[in-house]
Amino acid sequence: MWNRPRFDLKVRLTLRVAAISAACFAAISAYFLITADRAAHTRIDDIAAIVAKTLELQQGKIQWVASPRSDFPNLDPVSTYVMTPGLCLAFRGTSGDILQRFCSGAPIPASPPPQVFTAFYHGLFDPGREAVRPVIVRGMRLGEVVVSVDPAVQTADAWHEAGRLMLALAIALPLLCVLVYAALARALHPTRMIRTGLEQIAAGDLSARLPPFDLAELSAIRDVFNHLAESLDTALAERAELTRKLIALQDEERRHLARELHDEFGQSLAAIRALAASARQTAAQDCPSLLGECDGIARTATGMMETLRGTLFRLRPPDVEELGLVASLEGLVAGWNGRSRGETRFSIRFDGAFESLPATISASLYRIVQEALTNAAKHAGATKVSLALAMSPSEIALAIDDDGRSHDPATKSGMGLLGMRERVAALRGRLSFEASPNSGSALRVVIPLPAADQPVLERAA
Q: Membrane-crossing residues (predicted)?
């Protein structure tokens, strides 16, 4: 299944803030350029109006004094006050000819605008537009004033102002990203604690709790998390207690069944053997041909007694509390080595002191090992089974490895493995069953020790 790439939330939010900030800077720059263009056009319109009014006054003065010498139009007086770099003043007569023109030189810019900006600015605005004002005296149109600005000068001025904004953007945007990332990292720091708590819950540590947070949203998550952890802890504790009671009831039923089999079937088989021996004595005197049948009955009864003895051993193993876990497991392994007749080799290794181990844990470990050995020998067809039992002050670890058929469904399911899972769950432990890296199967069981027993275990160790 295709998975989308994952991005860090801080990086994603920082990039979004940077994109929004850049868009805002772009909008501000566009607004500034539009405003600057309007201001430039308003300025040349005002200059055109001033020049036109000045020429009208010049013409009125000439007519008032009735001077035969006419120096109209004269742009020199007004040009002294309004001329700026790149500005052009001109008077166009009624015939359309330019009668007088003044243009100030445009300085060479230190950093000319790029061609891309020039094309963009010329396409968006009209920097070479002329401002025209008519010169009218006593109702007679004498001509018109034409004012314009060199497009290169206006473009250079716009680029200079835009460059200042771009410089501010180049400085402010990275600084803003750093500050936003730092603020987000600080604000999202509790998410690491939430993730750690979830990982602890997933690992089975239901004692994990989250501390109070400053943010209301994270505090709500913290309340839900802690409530969930407490609910799961309570539910698992109740389940473990129920499982413990069911296992205790199951063990009691096994002991009762073992007593019934021993008392009823055992005595009956012993009686059959006695009767077969008596019948053999009688047949030896009166009917020798029945000796074979009597011996067959005796052998059948003996075989049934051996089978019954093995069944009783499985139903009611030796008292682990009296013999101890180490001795009981060593006896179990020795029994399997004896019954397998060399076909399967069983070995066991201990690490730690198990004398002060609670009886409930010892009995459950014995049953788990018993089921695991049966599963490996009968279902997986293993030729080598190794057991390792290690104890620390906080937990007990059981490892069982074999070289059998790990792909056999019977080794991964069935009542045996289900019973092991139930016993491990009753002790609040963890069980894993998987294929071994080389061949065969690997069973791992970890059972935590009660806190009240830890000082005793440490002194015993």
A: 13-34, 165-184
